[in-house]
Amino acid sequence: MKTYSGAPYAAATHSALQRRLLRNASFPPRTAQQDALKMSAVPMVPEVHLFLAEDSVLLWARLETEDGPLSAPYWATPWPGGQALARYVLDNPELVAGRRVLDLASGSGLVAIAAALAGAAEVTANDTDGYAIAAIQANANANGVLIATVADDLTDGDGEDYEVILAGDCLYTAEVAAKMLPFIGRAMQRGATVLLGDPGRGYAPPGLLRTLTTYESAPLVSGEDGQRDQTSVLTPVAVALTS
Ligand SMILES: C[S@@+](CC[C@H](N)C(=O)[O-])C[C@H]1O[C@@H](n2cnc3c(N)ncnc32)[C@H](O)[C@@H]1O
Predict the structure, then answer these.
(1) Helix 110-117 to helix 130-142 angle, to the nearest 10 degrees?
(2) 128 CA distance to ligand 1 centroid (A)?
(3) Cβ contact 222:192 at 8 Å
(4) Candidate from 56, 128, 154, 201 with most ligand 1 atoms within 8 A of CB, to mutate
(5) Are 84 and 215 a contacting pair, CB within 8 Å?
(6) Handedness of CA 143, 130, 5, 159 (dihedral sign)
(7) pLDDT at 154
(8) Which pLDDT tens digit goes with each residue over 165-223?
(9) How are beta strands 37-42 and 164-168 bridged, if at all?
(10) Does the beta carbon of 103 lie inside 6 Å of ligand 1?
(11) Is 124 close to ligand 1, i.e. is its CB under 6 Å away?
(12) From the CA of 240, how far away is ligand 1's center (Å)?
């Protein structure tokens, strides 16, 4: 099911989660409560502000205290791959302008927001984590853009009719990469433009993805990840990615 941000917070599908996110967020930032979310500029993409964790490990612990076992709050960090890809999209708006865009593994919604700011006709952000969906909607509202969200796992398909598929840091474990890479190959085969942001975690098959540009990585706002020096924007080059 698709839901659209841009509506008042209380009307959103994930309104309870959204209310919790917003209740915990502060702007200007608090300093006393280190497990809070705060509205922060993204280091490589200062045009975009997001609700981000001051300390994502503490945030995770607090959310689990409230809700029981949860996935790590990946949505509360702008990952290096997402930052690089969002930067690239904003600097090359012709890639998305007037086109239907899917941001796969969207997390905070950073790349989707960049695509919307760059003039995409329609942007859908997809993530299988319900907390990410709530964060995407809150972040889209905060940045004044309209983004649809989808919480289904789309990786068995080929990206439907999206003309551009963007994916920041979607190759972060072997298991996830094994789902993402065949999807990316199928999307490319049907003619979609596919762009990945990847900091070189070792799951991007050499020879199958071409580097478009490489950035010096910015420091993470909240360090779930070891700092990586460089992050590249990649595009698939071979049909060999298909399953
Ligand atoms: C490392 S985070 C990257 C988030 C964001 N793109 C960024 O760069 O900041 C990866 C995200 O992929 C999501 N994810 C994992 N498997 C997925 C799947 N099969 N479909 C959609 N999202 C998935 C996770 O929930 C997480 O939010």
Answers:
(1) 30
(2) 7
(3) no
(4) 128
(5) yes
(6) positive
(7) 98
(8) 999 999 999 999 999 999 999 999 999 999 999 999 999 987 889 999 999 977 665 55
(9) unpaired
(10) no
(11) no
(12) 23
| Nearest atom in ligand 1 to 103's CA | 6
Q: In this structure, what token pair is assigned to residue 113?
A: 């927001």
Looking at the CA of residue 132, tell me the nearest atom of ligand 1.
27
Q: In what order do the strands lie in the sheet with 37-42?
A: 25-26, 37-42, 45-53
- Specify which residues 214 forms β-bridges with: 232
Q: What are the structural domains of the chain?
A: 2-241 (3.40.50.150)
CA-to-CA distance for 190 and 171, rounded, in angstroms?
21
d(CA 125, CA 151): 9
Q: How big is the chain, counted in residues? A: 243
In whole angstroms, give the CA distance from residue 26 to residue 37.
Answer: 7
